Amino acid sequence: MDLKALGLALALLATPANADFDAEAFPPYERCALCHGLFGTSAIARFPHLGGQDPIYIRHQIEAFLEGSRHNDGGQMASIVSELKPEEIPIVVAWFSQQDPPAPSGDGNAVGQTHFVARGCDACHDAEVSYLGVPHLASQHAGYLIKQMQDFRDGRRETHDGCLPHASLMPDTDDEIHAIANYLAAQRRP
Question: Residues with Cβ < 8 Å from 4, sequence gap 6 or more?
Fold first, then answer.
């Protein structure tokens, strides 16, 4: 290590870690942006795109994680949303729901569309129809959709109140789940 780099390292160590840091100065949606992207387009399929998502759905999911009625692998969401003050939740919801929706990805095909329609998923999740509180699935990460459908099917995720129980609607085979997810990821969200 040269002397200049050593001097910089020592200066950083001597600086208090929280010097002039004000967590309150950052908008609350920036906590969410670490995984979901600042404008709601996440880079990793494990984290869903939130840009342009239905605001009621976003709010319901935050509340479900806070109440413990929804869980994810490792509890990261419950930990993060518990950092939000009640008055910050509407700010987070408004920010992400007002962003542009993500671009479609992948190469969904007619097989996935056939399964999507045959299972009746289009009754609530059609890209051209928007029901309050129902998530947009078009242009979502295929990997995220696959995981959620498997979780519904296998009982790891519950359907929120007022909605049809999803477990009974889910395909039995992963091939069908993959086809539906790839179809949805490739669809443009209006």
Answer: none
CA-nearest of 50, 163, 47 to 102 is 50
90 and 45 in one domain? yes
Q: What is the pLDDT of residues 146-190, one digit of tens each?
A: 999 999 999 999 877 667 788 888 999 999 999 999 999 999 987
Residues 169 and 113 both lie in one domain: yes
Q: What pTM does this model have? A: 0.84
- One-letter identity of residue 163: C
C-beta of residue 68 within 8 angstroms of C-beta of residue 77? no
Here the tokens at position 58 are 């976003």
Q: CA 5: distance to chain centroid?
A: 40
What is the tens place of the pLDDT at every residue in 51-62? 999 999 999 999
In angstroms, the CA 64 to CA 146 distance is: 20
- Total domains in the chain come to 2
Token code pair at residue 52: 């342009």
Q: What is the pLDDT of residues 128-151, one digit of tens each?
A: 777 888 999 999 999 999 999 999
Distance CA 2, CA 157 (A): 54
3-state secondary structure of 10: helix
Decide: helix, strand or coil at residue 79.
Answer: helix
